[in-house]
Write a structure and sequence with these properties.
Elements (H helix, E strand, L loop, with lengths): L13 H18 L1 E4 L4 H13 L2 H10 L3 H14 L8 E8 L6 E7 L8 H5 L16 H12 L1
Antiparallel strand pairs: 1-3, 2-3
Helix pairs in contact: 2-3, 2-4
């Protein structure tokens, strides 16, 4: 039974835990994807719900939780507009293994409708042209020995 075991304590005192949550919220809404534990999901969804209300009281509630005014402005202007027709479920959790130090389960926490950035996978299909063996630009053990011998002799 889980009586009186609500929330994640994360091995921290209350003030430290809330400071951690605030910093992670700033990072999430600034970069739209962070690597963390899953304790942040409820707070992130709640902040998007506040932003969708678009009134002064909701903005002040968000500012009390997110200390960066630039991030709160972005949350209310762009992020809330993207989720205007969605009723909850604003974040996605992708499992990312375990943290080496303490074995805590790590996840990628990201906003669902985030703008995709070009990745290296797109460039992976294009291969660079390589110089044939033995021609200029090839660096091998024999070539290095020949260069050293030519420089000394």
């Amino acid at each position: 039974m889980r009586h009186r075991n609500a929330g994640y304590k994360l091995g921290r005192v209350t003030q430290h835990r809330w400071a951690l949550f605030r910093n992670l919220l700033v990072a999430l809404f600034r970069h739209e994807r962070i690597t963390t534990t899953k304790a942040m999901r409820g707070l992130a969804d709640h902040m998007v719900t506040l932003a969708k209300r678009e009134n002064l009281h909701a903005r002040r509630q968000a500012l009390s939780m997110i200390p960066d005014t630039e991030v709160v402005g972005r949350l209310f202007d762009t992020i809330a507009a993207r989720f205007a027709d969605r009723h909850g479920g604003y974040t996605r959790i992708i499992k990312a293994g375990q943290r080496p130090g303490d074995g805590a389960p790590l996840v990628f926490l990201e906003l669902v409708d985030r703008v995709e950035t070009p990745t290296d996978k797109d460039k992976k299909g294009e291969k660079k042209e390589r110089a044939p063996k033995g021609e200029a630009g090839a660096t091998g053990r024999r070539k290095r020995k020949e260069k050293v011998a030519a420089a000394s002799g």
